[in-house]
């Protein structure tokens, strides 16, 4: 390529360190007041995605008693963790979700208990360690791994104590191994995808990778595993009553959430158009595109990740951690940045720098699609100039 280029990894590392240092200085100057801006708006609610779940599973009635929206496998995970908490402590735990919110920040706060706080810390330590190992296996750089682990999504996930950390590990394992030569590893990858679905539901969208490659039998088994990891834990809790209560709560939550976020503005219409465009590009890539016009793997994963998160609460906060996966493939495809690849790189920086805009909207995805189209076109031009056939 013509023109000056820069090593992609180094640029991201420098930008990450600059924003980390800047955020640290800003927190120091503000005497810590900016924590409320950088993280969850309620400073008393830190880690409560984790602690609320411990409370709301200990009676084995998370749906009918507490109105939980988490899938059954997620509740089973927290139920197993709360078994390590002494019964004498659990005897005074709140009997409703509203009551559990009332004790936050008081002397009865569950976070003040030694056993629950140790469980929380162990969960964070173990998941972050596994995430670091998985990222380092791709980057081979401790400094780059450090920067990615300290990206915006990871920060937010740690602050909330959210299961997205565990879902990230499972999704990453699936993407890395679903085409492995070893049959057992491929099957474990399908189970990992099913378990990710059992924790968060939206990872089901990553199953499109199986359809893209024509692995229809594997897709069928993944669906079977997903059904099992959903139904079996549900019957462990509340059976058919739990099913109906969960579905009602989940539907009501999505209805309220959609009503709150919907609008008739030009931006809402534009966002809808871009979402349809993203879906169309994925379908075209799967069934109609010729080899030389197909998306690069990082581009495909970026679109799948973006669309998967539209099923949940969008591409901000802790969900940003999932954009680490396509970015790792982008680093392999684009070892050096030029004017064209910078377009995609900027969108990744919006998602992954520790501090910044940190929200991938459909408008940013339109910008990303422009960069993706230009990189594919530039790659084809280079192949023609070099006399290399498309692979």
Q: What would you call the structural class? A: mainly alpha
Identify the overall geometry.
globular
Order of helices and strands: EHHHHHHHHHHHHHHHHHEHH
The biggest sheet amounts to: 2 strands, antiparallel
Mean pLDDT: 87
Which segments are poorly predicted (pLDDT under 50) over 5 or more consecutive residues?
Answer: none
Q: What is the spatial order of strands in the main beta sheet?
A: 1-2
N-to-C CA distance:
19 Å
Radius of gyration, in Å, reads: 22 Å
**Count of discrete alpha- or pi-helical segments spanning 4 or more residues:** 19
Strand content: under 5%
Structure description:
The protein has 391 residues and is mostly helical. Helices cover 68% and strands 1% of the residues. It has 19 helices and two strands. It has helices spanning 8-29, 35-38, 48-57, 72-82, 87-90, 97-102, 114-139, 142-149, 152-160, 164-177, 183-200, 208-212, 216-237, 239-261, 266-287, 297-309, 324-333, 341-352, 362-386, and strands at residues 6-7, 336-337. A two-stranded antiparallel ribbon has the order 1-2. α16 (297-309) runs antiparallel to α17. The two termini are 19 Å apart.
